[in-house]
Amino acid sequence: MENGPPVPASKPFAIVFMGTPALAAHILRRLLDARDIPARVVAAITRPDQPRGRGLKLHPSEVAQVAAAYGLPVLKPTKIRTAEFLDQLKSYRPDLLVVAAYGRILPPAVLQAAALMPINVHASLLPRHRGAAPIQGALLAGDKITGVTIMRMVEQMDAGPILLQRQIPIAPDETQATLTERLAELGAQALLEALDALARGSLHETPQDESQATYTAIVKKEDARIDWRLPAEQIERIVRAYDPWPVAFTEYRGEELRIYRAAALEDAGGQPAPPGTILEAKGPPIVQCGTGRLRLLEVQAAGRKRMQGDDYARGRRLAAGDRLGANQ
Fold first, then answer.
1. 69 vs 104, residue with greater confidence
2. Which of 216, 244, 274 corresponds to the end of one domain?
3. Which of 187, 218, 260, 288 has a CA that sits 20 to 30 A from residue 162's CA?
């Protein structure tokens, strides 16, 4: 694509948008609110409604909610590898598929339904952090910068040529929640910029460097269990990467303890106690790690509200020498 794909001469691009969570919903809303862009969204595709809350009632995805608010047709297929779904998709005659955190790998037939191309908004600087959890991946790795990539989709996961990239610094106290919000807006801006360039025929492809590719996997709750043998700096990154979900956790006296904010400290000379040992309990608890120490600033005990670490220490009468972690 040296000079970009062919462009419809008399009408804007027809876009079918595919996405599910809040990040995708923000991008869809910005697309729908945008003025003077060479595109119009004709339908949205998202995951089926999911049970949430104590009553486990079915709730639509964030993308479905935005689509409904704007009166946009929305499909919620349980299966996308069917002739029925493909016929529904093709009925909208999309020039472009725009995909952002949809949550499923798209088969070739779906990718080929777009007359021009399928485009993905990926929340990392590809080829770094391909896969399902690029935002968590950047935080866990201690990256100093991240960004978004607009890419043409191919069958291989997140391996298509790069159309446009934009980057931002990662703040020292950045969490999954704050970084997701910032990348959602950056992704929306980058997508609008890419659509404008596509219409002008000035959007160019750059192949990804496969030698630089790294991968992330779907996050599971167990990933957030703290291993106190790790360095304090790494545990602190785990805390930030898994806020607001699944939330870093450990155990104290058989009870789950969630950790929302923490600060890594250097060892004060040697390692005075096994990993997981509470070294200080007056004020926010300080815990020995594999190397370094971790100060627990904000926590949540089972069945309780989030609270400051020192309030938890007083309420549970923590003492130096107590241990955190499974089997303690």
1. 69
2. 216
3. 218
For tokens 């990040």, name the residue.
23
The total number of residues shown for the chain amounts to 328
Residues 150 and 232 in one domain: no
**Furthest-apart CA atoms within the chain: distance in Å:** 74
Please indicate, yes or no, whether residues 143 and 38 belong to a single structural domain of this protein. yes
SS3 state at 98: strand
Please state, rounded to an integer, the average pLDDT across all residues of the chain. 94
Tell whether 62 and 162 lie within a shared domain.
yes
> CA torsion, points 287, 290, 292, 295, in degrees to nearest 10?
-20
Q: Which pTM does this prediction carry?
A: 0.94
Same domain, yes or no, for 208 and 241? no
Give the three-state DSSP class for 197.
helix
Q: What is the C-alpha to C-alpha distance for residues 6 and 1, in angstroms, rounded to an integer? A: 10
Provide the Cα torsion 29, 35, 37, 40; round to 10°.
50
Torsion, Cα 262 268 269 275, to 10 degrees, reads -30
- Claim to verify: residue 88 and residue 119 sit in the same structural domain: yes
Alpha carbons 322 and 307: distance in angstroms, whole number: 20
What CATH number does the domain containing 34 carry? Answer: 3.40.50.170
Q: Does residue 216 sit in helix, strand or coil?
A: strand
Domain limits for position 205: 13-216
Band of the pLDDT at 55, cuts 50, 70, 90? confident
If one counts the domains in the chain, the total is 2
Q: Which H/E stretch holds residue 309?
A: helix 309-316
Backbone angles phi and psi of 88, in degrees to 5: -65, -45
Alpha carbons within 13 A on the beta-carbon side of 243 = 22
DSSP-derived pairing of the beta strands 130-131 and 278-280: unpaired
**Position 173, amino acid:** D
Compute the distance between CA of residue 170 and CA of residue 305 in angstroms, rounded to an integer.
Answer: 29
Q: What is the mean pLDDT of residues 139-163?
A: 97
Q: Helix-strand-coil percent breakdown of the chain, rounded to 5?
A: 25, 30, 45
